[in-house]
Design goal:
Length: 462
Amino acid sequence: MFPYEGRLVNLRAKNCYDKIELQRFLRGAIKLGFEIIPLIQTFGHMEFVLKQKEFYHLREDPKYPDSICPTKIESQMLIKEMLIQMVNFHKNISPLKFIHIGCDEVFHINKCYECSRENFSNTDIFIKHIRKIKQIVEDINPETTVLIWDDMFRSIKLKSWNEIGYFNKIQTVYWDYGANSSVSHVNLLKYHRKFDNIWIATAFKGADGRLSTIPNLKNRFLNHLNWLKLIANYKFGGETNFHSFVGIILTGWSRYSHFDPLCELLPASIPSLLLNLLLIRKFNEGHLSYNNDIKEMEFRTFFNKYLQTDFSDSLHCVIHDIEKTNYSSCIFDGCELYNYLSEFLKIHENVIYYFESEKHGLSSLQYYANQKNLINTNNAVMNMKLCNGTLHELFDVERKLLVVMSQYYGNDTIEEYINAKMFHLKYKLEGSMKLLKDLMGVRAFETSLKHLKWDSTVLESH
């Protein structure tokens, strides 16, 4: 989405921000009190670069466009130019205190000839690369500190970790998006010894599945609550003072990767964002300080005691249970989109039921129609009405989504999102309709016992 220029112009998305538009947005955010931290991928998740023909040769493994070769000089020049454009754009608007360089999920490392001939371990190559990136950032703007995702550090054994030098002007971000925390205290201690500060990262959307439509509010709430319970009055072994984590990044992913479909849309995810911001405010007010009663409190009890009133007031509706609430009566920017997506999910649920349930069993239609040339015509009439009615419901929701999404997104995004959501449902329903119509003609059916022949003379003789 960043409006790259010059040699990097092909890295722009078709619907990237206009420079003037982006400057206006950033200045508006700063006036509201936001500090901007841009994120730019510099190792893994680089499909948006490495899919391009002109940068294809910089892949670590030619088959996979997600990881760049860190050893090639051209790779370093490319990343440097990306950082120059990004850092200069931001610092010309306001001082750039932090920049996030990504570096998570580097699935392919130390595979190409240039890397393997160096005879370094994967860890050595990774550490060397991020130190280079940090130096590039420092050369461009000495006031900027680098943030980096932590997951590539997690598997480094303590013995090897102790041999790694201190990371000056680099701070790590420990991400964990699960409802049930799997945070490693050993890794936290590793980071504490090597970095000036540790951030944590949660997810208010984008962590419930690649095809998720609306955030699972319970899972998103538990993710934040469990993180906050863990870091409240946190002490590292052998230390007497509580550790102060520098910040919490509430991530909201829209795709799992560059080539994956869109998952939850931001406007429909506002209730999750709002709830978890309210939770963090309670944390900052000291409601999660060292108190065993609160730390052991079941999440529903915590919600009802500390958040229910504020959450209900913010959404202008009464919310008793975050698991079972229907937000269709609530008022927030995005509620109309939320309601139409809820309608879509109901239709989706019904289609799955029609095809997989023992009552309807439409999943068996394909086999009996194509392999046996058989059909229960009484059921076929009912199923045709069912498919036809469901298709009309689907087309109605599609029309509504086209209108409401135009308030937030361009045509390319709208077309991709709606078609991806509707495609497999239409395919099932329209395919079943065609089969049913083809088999509904008046005809005789062949017997399955083909070796027997009907002899009418037997009856006549009696």
